[in-house]
């Protein structure tokens, strides 16, 4: 099983490397009065990471809502 994991890591690393090498064109991103120029690959990877973070926060929020609702259903005091 260890060789499968190593193979997957090598494959994913190769895919990311090819992606980065094929997307070296510079793009300019503007937000409010800030303008930032970076390679397209860096922008896409940054957006992906931000998506993972916000998705994880949303999932965590909904899990806490469900836990709180279950506590109220069973009559246990909520911890806040």
Largest sheet properties? 2 strands, antiparallel
Strand content: 15-25%
What is the helical fraction, as a range of percent?
Answer: over 70%
Q: Give the tally of structural domains.
A: 1
The average pLDDT is: 85
Categorize the overall geometry.
flat
Helices, by number, come to 2
Low-confidence stretches: none
What string gives the helices and strands in order? Answer: HEEH
What structural class do you assign from the helix and strand content?
alpha+beta
Radius of gyration: 21 Å
Strand order of the largest sheet: 1-2
What is the CA–CA distance across the termini? 43 Å
Overall strand count: 2
Concise account of the structure shown:
This protein is an alpha+beta fold and 80 residues long. 70% of the residues lie in helices and 15% in strands.
Helices and strands in order, then pairings?
Elements: H1 2-22, E1 26-31, E2 34-39, H2 40-74
Characterization of this structure:
The protein has 80 residues and is α+β, with helices and mostly antiparallel strands. The chain has one domain. The protein is built from two helices and two strands. The chain has helices at residues 2-22, 40-74, and strands spanning 26-31, 34-39. A two-stranded antiparallel sheet has the order 1-2. It starts with a helix and ends in a 6-residue tail after the last helix. The model has no long low-confidence stretch (mean pLDDT 85).
């Amino acid at each position: 099983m260890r060789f499968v994991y190593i193979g997957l890591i090598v494959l994913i690393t190769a895919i990311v490397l090819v992606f980065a090498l094929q997307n070296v064109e510079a793009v300019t991103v503007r937000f409010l009065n800030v303008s930032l120029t970076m390679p397209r690959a860096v922008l896409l990877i940054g957006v992906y990471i931000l998506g993972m973070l916000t998705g994880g926060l949303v999932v965590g929020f909904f899990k806490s809502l469900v836990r709180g609702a279950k506590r109220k259903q069973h009559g246990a005091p909520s911890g806040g």
